[in-house]
Design brief:
The chain has nine helices and no strands. The chain is mainly alpha-helical. It folds into two domains: 183 residues, no CATH class; 29 residues. The chain is elongated. It is a multi-pass membrane protein. Belongs to the dolichyldiphosphatase family. It holds the Pfam family PAP2.
């Protein structure tokens, strides 16, 4: 085994200049897509929300498209980079563009919790701001790929464009799926009931709903404790 040359796992192995803080930051940004995949799986399992599953399915479809495009176009990476694989379009840029645009469309157009008017206005403003932050983050990841010489600007722009188009197209598809009642049909399946799939995040603020449920339980607990104490003192 000592004579066998070791290989690098390219999924997480990132070349950067250790003397350049921006290069180090760019290397960390390169790991964001992997972190998001872990977040997708964790959130889908923890929440059992259909919308999360649909978004993750679209994200993986976008990745499959990138895999196909790279092998059709066959454009090499920049000469300075010795990494393996084709560079057109950038998979990091495409992944992040899909994530930012689809999540932004969901927050601004689809997520509509029932709130009082002042709270609803503030809630919408927060969602719009979060959408902007997601787009800025996607742009930072895309720029980092050029900074690290993994991609040319053209490859990053192509990846971002493909990601945006995929996000808009998939958002339209999921909208039609909801209009046609297919989501409700899936939720009625025995396998969906077994895995406790639900569809609440579109119409509810899960943080607010969870907090109200917790407060109601605490209030009931305090009431029961008070009644028990009153009976003991009689």
């Amino acid at each position: 085994m000592a004579d066998v040359p070791l290989a690098s796992l390219s999924l997480t192995h990132v070349h950067y200049n250790p003397e350049d803080p921006l290069s180090l930051l760019s290397a960390w940004l390169a790991l964001v897509p992997q972190a998001l995949v872990i977040s997708y799986v964790t959130l889908a399992w923890a929440s059992r929300e259909v919308e999360v599953v649909l978004m993750f399915a679209g994200q993986m479809g976008c990745e499959a498209l990138n895999f196909i495009l790279k092998r059709i176009i066959k454009e090499e990476r920049p000469k300075q980079m010795f990494g393996k694989g084709y560079g057109m379009p950038s998979s990091h840029a495409q992944f992040m563009a899909f994530f930012a645009v689809y999540a932004g469309l969901f927050l601004v157009l689809r997520h509509s919790p029932v709130l009082a008017r002042p709270a609803a206005t503030v809630h919408f403003g927060i969602r719009a701001l979060l959408s902007l932050v997601l787009c800025i983050g996607a742009g930072a990841v895309a720029i980092s790929r050029v900074y690290l010489n993994y991609h040319t600007p053209k490859q990053v722009l192509a990846g971002s464009g493909a990601g945006v188009l995929c996000a808009i197209a998939w958002f339209f598809v999921t909208r039609q799926v909801r209009i046609l009642g297919w989501v409700d049909w899936v939720l009625d399946l025995k396998v969906s009931k077994f895995f406790r799939l639900r569809d609440l995040v579109v119409s509810e603020d899960l943080v607010e709903a969870g907090w109200q449920h917790s407060e109601a339980k605490r209030k009931s607990k305090r009431k029961d404790s008070s009644e028990h104490h009153s009976r003991k003192t009689e």
